[in-house]
Write a structure and sequence with these properties.
Strand order of the largest sheet: 10-14-15-13-12-11
CATH architecture of the largest domain: 2-Layer Sandwich
Strand content: 25-35%
Number of domains: 3
Number of strands: 18
CATH class of the largest domain: Alpha Beta
CATH topology of the largest domain: Heat Shock Protein 90
Helix content: 40-55%
Largest sheet: 6 strands, mixed
């Protein structure tokens, strides 16, 4: 009985906090955007066209109501089609214009970093240059406002624990002055922001040792990790590889928060490092948070949306081509070994039908890593509006949001990065077993894929 009372007290406590900061929140939300007059004129013209189309729909509805048997159905159908096409053109134009209005250059957030690097350089006693590139690259204003803190954290880490002291740099044959590069550029339908330093890089062996010492993973799990996966441990909660924690920061402290913040923006963080040469963190961010292109797929009788930016290709693969590699199924596709997982297994969905001999596979990519997802059916490509899941559903693994379809049904949107992470963790959990957990090899007695479960 005490627990409900305690939990009931929490909402009251948390509700009291927002009351203390309405002024700050109002200031942040009411921040303005400068808009070209021509764009506003164009928006006004589009609104006018929308009103004309609305009147056309009303006219068609009245003719149907009053026409009775004299109504020419083919004529009404043609009018409806023409009006719908016009509405589609106007809505596309309206969406494009609104997106352009919301776009602001990243220079608005980059401009704070030269002073930050100068202060950090003075505090740490290291000479560091900051090079900024692509400041004119544009992003949605809400995204630009949210990336400031993650970038501050990454730059602090680069200066404090990425760049070596001057004597160590000279001994390694490097220029005495360190360099941190901050660049932004378009990459497909997203924007990439890179934070690169020419420091000492991240040692995978040290990552394994620290992770074992802190109890994040066991020695057996560490032995199974390749160097890239070992470097990714930097994003584990509570992980720090710093020899000593300074008031600036330790590389790794709070890196899980950086990844969480970027994930909340429907983006991802990747790491590229070379020992003795330096480290590069790449943030991949969507141009806008509202509308995306998605590939619709059917899994266990349910429809899901996969962001099209993360889809490399769709293909059909014969079950007989699948082999076991490091405890999970894989196939050689155009000379490259591709891991294969069943999406129903990832999402803990019951299988409605046995798998066919030819599998429908969606190949997704998480930065430069690829994974094949087995689905029941490939559906159409569609433009969808992203809606947050809300507090009721909470944080569902592998799901980044939801969308509402034309018929009113709610479709969940998959998070490709989290699906990839879930697939690797399931594979590592099943290593060392003769029959990995959640897997049965294709039976020699039963043809096809009926016994194949990933």
């Amino acid at each position: 009985a005490a627990k409900p009372a305690a939990s009931a007290a929490k909402p009251g406590a948390s509700a009291a906090k927002p009351a203390a900061k309405p002024a700050a929140e109002t200031t942040q939300k009411s921040s303005s955007i400068r808009v070209d007059h021509e764009r506003l004129d164009h928006l006004m013209n589009l609104i006018g066209e929308l009103i004309i189309n609305r009147n056309r729909y009303a006219l068609i509805a009245r003719s149907l109501e009053s026409g009775g048997a004299d109504v020419d159905i083919s004529q009404v159908a043609q009018s409806l089609s023409e009006t719908t096409y016009a509405m589609a053109r106007i809505s596309d134009d309206l969406q494009d214009t609104i997106m352009k209005v919301r776009m602001v250059p990243v220079s608005s957030v980059f401009s704070r970093f030269p002073r930050l690097v100068r202060d950090l350089s003075r505090k740490s006693g290291k000479e560091v240059d900051l090079v900024m590139e692509g400041e004119e690259t544009e992003l949605d204003k809400s995204v630009v406002e949210a990336i400031g803190d993650p970038l501050v954290h990454l730059i602090r880490n680069s200066v404090d624990h990425g760049i070596e002291p001057e004597d160590a740099r000279i001994a390694a044959g490097k220029p005495p002055k360190g360099r941190v590069t901050l660049r932004a550029f378009h990459k497909g339908n997203s924007v990439a922001i890179e934070i690169e330093d020419d420091g000492k890089g991240i040692d995978p062996e040290k990552m394994r040792e620290v992770a074992i010492r802190k109890g994040i993973i066991t020695a057996e799990e560490a032995a199974q990790l390749d160097d890239r996966e070992a470097v990714e441990l930097i994003f584990a909660p509570g992980f720090s590889s710093a020899d000593k924690i300074t008031d600036i920061s330790g590389r790794g402290v709070g890196m899980d928060v950086v990844r969480t913040n970027i994930k909340n923006l429907k983006g991802s963080v990747s790491t590229n490092t070379e020992l003795g040469k330096g480290t590069r963190f790449t943030l991949s961010l969507p141009l806008t948070l509202a509308i995306i292109d998605a590939l619709m797929v059917n899994v266990s009788g349910q429809t899901y949306a996969i962001p099209l930016d993360a889809v490399s290709e769709t293909t059909k693969i014969e079950c007989s081509r699948l082999t076991d590699v490091k405890g999970r199924k894989a196939v050689t596709l155009r000379g490259e070994v591709l891991g294969i997982v069943e999406l129903a297994e990832m999402l803990d969905l019951p299988r409605t039908d046995p798998l066919p001999e030819v599998l429908s596979v969606v190949v997704i990519h998480d930065n430069d890593r690829r994974l094949g997802l087995v689905v029941d059916r490939l559906l159409e490509r569609q433009e969808i509006v992203i809606k947050p899941l809300g507090a009721y559903l909470g944080d569902l693994k592998g799901i980044s949001g939801a969308t509402i379809m034309g018929d009113g049904s709610v479709i969940l949107i998959l998070d490709p990065h989290e699906i990839y992470v879930m697939s690797t963790s399931k594979a590592s959990n099943s290593l060392g077993n003769e029959t990995p957990k959640g897997m049965r090899s294709a039976s020699s007695e039963t043809p096809g894929c009926e016994e194949f479960t990933i």
